[in-house]
Amino acid sequence: MKQLEHLYETGSSEALFNSMQTHEQVIFCNDPATGLQAIIAIHNTTLGPALGGTRMYPYASVEDALKDVLRLSEGMTDKCAAADIDFGGAKGVIIGDPKHHKTAAMFRSYGQFVESLNGRFYTGTDMGTTMDDFVHAAKETNFINGLPEAYGAGAIPPYRQQEGWSMVLRRLIVSCSDRRISKIAHMRSKGSARLGLKWLNICLNAGQKCM
Asked: Dihedral of CA 72/77/82/87: which sign?
């Protein structure tokens, strides 16, 4: 990764490793043959294998991608714990424009990296990726969630994830003050991709003021 090499050239390698010190494992995935440049961050596996979607986004730099995947994976640990499911938190990001750069070969390559983790990381769709993308990845690994029924359902399909996160939010509404839940709703809707609208509707139906 040329952009990753830049981190070392600028003398910021110590800061790079410091940024990852709260995570169990961070994997940089590079496959020049398919154009794949991706990062998988496993934050915590205390409760079980790490769970988190993989998004594709045209990050301006590897640094930006790393910051995003570290933040998102830590959030997944909190979500899984709050939902009382036996998974830890992780996330994957693929660097590239999903409208122009994604290919079947790229996702097959990504599936090989997921497979190399031997079940420590379960993944599926997120912003910029689709179930069709992960049909290709599933040709290389069994650790894919939310596949179409024709290809075998994953461990936690997307609609089950929605139910789990919605349950967490309802619990927060009951236990937190109006001011606090408004802040939570704002933060989660900003970073929850496809679940954001569903969560906002729950807050509004509960009489919360959402920003």
From this structure: positive
Q: Locate the DSSP E strands across the chain.
A: 25-31, 36-44, 50-51, 54-57, 88-95, 121-122
Closest alpha carbon to 56 in 93, 14, 15, 100: 93
Q: Which amino acid is at 164?
A: G
* Cross-strand pairs, 27: 40
Cβ contact 121:90 at 8 Å: yes
Q: What are phi and psi of 147, to 5 degrees?
A: -70, 155
Q: Higher confidence at residue 170 or residue 190?
A: 170
Active site residues: 91
The answer on pLDDT for 196 being more than 90 is no
pTM of the model: 0.72
Give whole-number Cα distances, 130 to 55, 82, 166, in Å. 9, 26, 22
Helix (H) or strand (E) holding 127: none
Widest CA span of the chain, in angstroms? 53
Rounded alpha-carbon distances, angstroms, from residue 79 to 13, 68, 151, 188, 189:
30, 16, 27, 11, 14
